[in-house]
Specification:
Layout: H1 14-26, H2 36-46, H3 53-63, H4 67-76, E1 88-93, H5 96-100, H6 103-114, E2 127-132, E3 144-146, E4 149-151, H7 156-167
Parallel strand pairs: 1-2
Antiparallel strand pairs: 1-3, 3-4
Helix pairs in contact: 1-2, 2-3, 3-4
The protein binds FE2/S2 (inorganic) cluster (FES).
FE2/S2 (inorganic) cluster binds next to helix 5.
Length: 168
């Protein structure tokens, strides 16, 4: 996850602006607002992994839509954060297939290893555990998403391997 020390004021500039502009260019000129999800993702990535009201307002201004249109998207989808999260966000599926295939054991094991429950962040700011809805990889239940990666058929052993990898 990238971060920046840029002040939240006039946040959409430089590289952030260029990345959003690439998405805007994909859509017809009058459909600039179609870039809202990508714009929120980019702003979130560049702001230590979470959005503030001020940043969402800036996205609205930049896309020439109302703040409410941005808030609706940013609060509907679970991939947007509204408070600081850990550097590594473990998004563990809490939907039916993953439940039936033992996701509770994964939560329990991670709590034992990291000392945090879902919704919490480790004291060092390294890990956050989050319960999320079905991520469309039910055949690999129980599973979790970390960044752009899906980790499926989770076991205590595979969790150990991932944690060791992240400690490097
Ligand atoms: S139920 Fe977990 S990925 Fe679908």
């Amino acid at each position: 996850m990238s971060s920046t020390t840029t002040s939240p004021k006039n946040f959409i500039q430089g590289d952030i602006k260029a990345r959003i502009d690439k998405w805007i260019a994909i859509y017809p000129e009058e459909q600039k607002k179609s870039a809202v999800m990508s714009a929120l993702r980019i702003v979130q990535e560049c702001h230590n992994g979470y959005l503030t009201n001020d940043l969402m307002d800036q996205v609205a201004t930049y896309l020439e839509i109302t703040p409410m249109e941005v808030y609706e998207v940013a609060t509907f989808y679970g991939n947007y954060e509204h408070a600081p999260v850990g550097e590594i966000k473990l998004c563990i599926c809490n939907s039916i297939s993953c439940m039936l295939r033992g996701n509770q054991g994964i939560y329990d094991y991670l709590e034992q290893k990291l000392g945090i429950k879902p919704g919490e962040t480790t004291a060092d700011g390294r890990f956050t555990i989050k319960k999320v809805e079905c991520l469309g990889a039910c055949g690999g239940a129980p599973m979790m998403q970390v960044g752009k990666d899906y980790h499926e058929n989770l076991t205590n052993q595979s969790i150990d391997l991932l944690l060791a990898e992240w400690e490097k």
